[in-house]
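Entry 14. Structure prediction run on the chain below.
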Amino acid sequence: MPEFTHTGDEKKEFVRKMFDDISPSYDFLNHFLSLGIDIYWRKKFIKKIEIQDGNTILDVACGTGDVGFQILTKHSVSITGIDLSPKMVELAQGKARGKKLDNITFIEGDAENLPLDDNSVDCLTISYGFRNISNYETALSEFYRVLKPGGKLGILEFSKPKSKIIDIIFHLYFHHILPRIASFFSRSDAYRYLPESVDFFPSRHDICRKIIYSGFKRAEIHDLTFGISTVFIGFKDEK
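Output returned:
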């Protein structure tokens, strides 16, 4: 029996409130609980997307902006970050001011109802936020809508490890060790929700099917670190 709701408006409101509440410790816990490997995963994710200088990028579920800031260390682009949590957006805006960056902006908004015009961005990224969306199909349709012809969708998410040994270790850490450590620093149910949301996340091939059914001409899967994380890339037709 799941502890949390994984679809619909109830999930959306829970996610919004949860990320507002954990925002002060979010960056610290991300790096601490992953032993810093989350930084490596994001760098590999960005490299796989093959961003070009001059691109316009939308970073959905941007959190405190780490993906956008990492992109700007390698590429001259314009980035908009959008997140459901207003407190996450505030933190991202503060980090941008501290870095004195004027080519990245952050706004509050919903992945299922993006406040952007059709065919307006070259690349759309979403890092460890896709599983938190209440309706995957609605969000993917929105992603397809705002991407320009020839544009690319990049999704980075946790997956089920392919190695049985790694899967056992991952399950033990994610379900039993991580929530106990996190509870000393943050809202405890947020880190019980995390492993459950990964358990309820569709398989790699189901995600690829959803991407294709949303209109993308093809999709790719790239596993990272024994399949603990996976990069999905969707390609919009150039026509």
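The chain has one domain: 8-235.
Filed with the rest of this week's runs.
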